Amino acid sequence: MKTKKYMKLKVFIALFLGFIAVGWAQKPDYKEKIKTMKIAYITDHLGLTPEQAEKFWPVYNKYDERIFELHHEERKIVKHQLNEESIEKLSEEEAQQLIDRLIYLENELLKQHKQMNADLKKILSAKEIVLLKKIEDDFMRELLWKLKGKKDKGGKH
């Protein structure tokens, strides 16, 4: 059951990154707008004290950026190198190199999440870190709904 949830999360993240990538191609400041919205959302829902916020944001932003970069690199591989035509042309050695790269990226993501949690534990309680994970998930879900709503209404992304 845990694996199924993990797979759903990975699909969700891939879709999320896909939506963002499409938006960035059309609006250079899209990333900053999303970052601003995310900061406001987390600030509003996590209820940090001023002292916590002063320590929290530098740590969070450091890891959030690196995690985004790793997801983006993984998405580039999936989007540009893993289509049916290119897979057919891959040698076994090239396929293994792609597998190794994807595993490396997943391990790096796990390492970043572990280190972020360890660093956040110096600032937040375990309950607040769990709440942060829920808040991040809620934010992404709401963002996707907004993007979907704009597309359904003829918005360009």
Q: What attributes does this structure have?
A:
157 residues, Sensor of ECF-type sigma factor, globular, mainly alpha
Give a quick precis of the structure.
This protein has 157 residues and is an all-alpha fold. It has helices spanning 2-26, 30-46, 50-81, 84-89, 92-120, 126-152.
Structural write-up:
This is Sensor of ECF-type sigma factor. It comes from Neptunitalea lumnitzerae. The chain is mainly alpha-helical and 157 residues long. Helix 3 (50-81) packs antiparallel against helix 5. It has 6 helices and no strands. The protein is globular.
Number of strands: 0
Q: H/E element string? A: HHHHHH
Mean pLDDT: 82
- Share of helical residues: over 70%
Share of β-strand residues = under 5%
- Count of DSSP-assigned helices: 6
Describe the main β-sheet briefly: none
Protein name: Sensor of ECF-type sigma factor
